[in-house]
Amino acid sequence: MALVNIHYLNLQNNYLFADVAKKVNAFKVIHPKADVISLGIGDVTQPLAPAVVEAMHKAADEMATAEGFRGYGPEQGYTFLREAILKNDFLPRGIHLDIDEVFINDGAKSDTGNFQELLHWDNFIGVTDPIYPVYIDSNVMIGRCGTYHDGRWTNVRYMPITAENGFVPPLPVGHPVDVIYLCYPNNPTGTVITKQELRKWVNYALKNDALILFDAAYQAYIRDKDIPHSIYEIRGARKCAIEFHSYSKTAGFTGVRCGYTIVPKDVTVSTFEGERLPLNQLWLRRQCTKFNGTSYISQRAAEATYTPEGKQQIQTTIDYYMDNAHRLLTRLRALGYEVYGGENAPYIWMRTPDGMGSWQFFEALLYGANVVCTPGVGFGPSGEGYVRFTAFSSHEKTEEALSRIENWTKQH
Ligand SMILES: *Cc1c(COP(=O)(O)O)cnc(C)c1O
Question: The whole model's pTM is what?
């Protein structure tokens, strides 16, 4: 008899964006003529950079010849891309990594979800709240989170990041946390962490023998000079942190699929007997068994983001989105809304007015202004009373959404 993995039955039934889509569809059935603008799901909209497209064409042409054809590539990724990563993303920040510490992936979602399988099932995990849902759900699937009550998992430590604490994540108090998920710049709040604050986390991890899983998917959106782009800018981090990167938001690769994970050789975990094992070797073993590499064409595409033209072109698109973020931030603020983020990240985090619930405001905005946002509570209990707007739309749609929100707000 094939038995189900019962932990899957613990998953909360709906994925946030499926719930949002359902409600939007219900609205469209009643209002078939309405033109709904979505500032909801975090997907990019602008086309790929010409340098990237050219590299993909070239790679495809190579594959069409006997000499240029490539079959299975190395599971860790091609050397040309791993070298480009070291040279462009780390060396300029004074971070010296070995090429064996870079693992190319097919996007950061896979690795942020999969990495936890190297860790014993009863490690105690800590997350900032609100948070990217993948971190918790992937731990639920392996039975690490306990049971779900009142919007919380019993075996997860939630560290609230809210307006009340200025979105500065508080270190865990009480029973130490073994594995910590941090995402900065943050999805969903669009807020950032300073070097000084991040140093506290690295020191906590070193002191408590904890592991930090650091998601840097939005590092390319950082504008302030002092905000760290990588956790390895902090001394000691290469002993306790894994870092995830993605070309999805950096270069519009949500459909192309490519990213990478840094697993420094100095990061070790313990057996019950106290023997230390390097995660780098375990992750290599895991990848060689379960992953057959990212496509050659995608890796050539990623490499092209580091050419002078590629760099400039992807920066233009990032600036385009950040211009949307700026418009959202300033105009929502001018309307009297309490808004956060949006300065070093493509997300705006807005407190709902008059203490409205996240879903209540979501529906009011959908029916009143035909604009879709994402209810903050979908990202965790401390997201209640907030909604998220993305800057990933076009200028035209962002402007139109803002005019509608303005009219709608002034009617109230
Ligand atoms: C979009 C996003 C990613 C990237 O996912 P990909 O699989 O690389 O497309 C990773 N982490 C966070 C927090 C994200 O929002």
Answer: 0.97
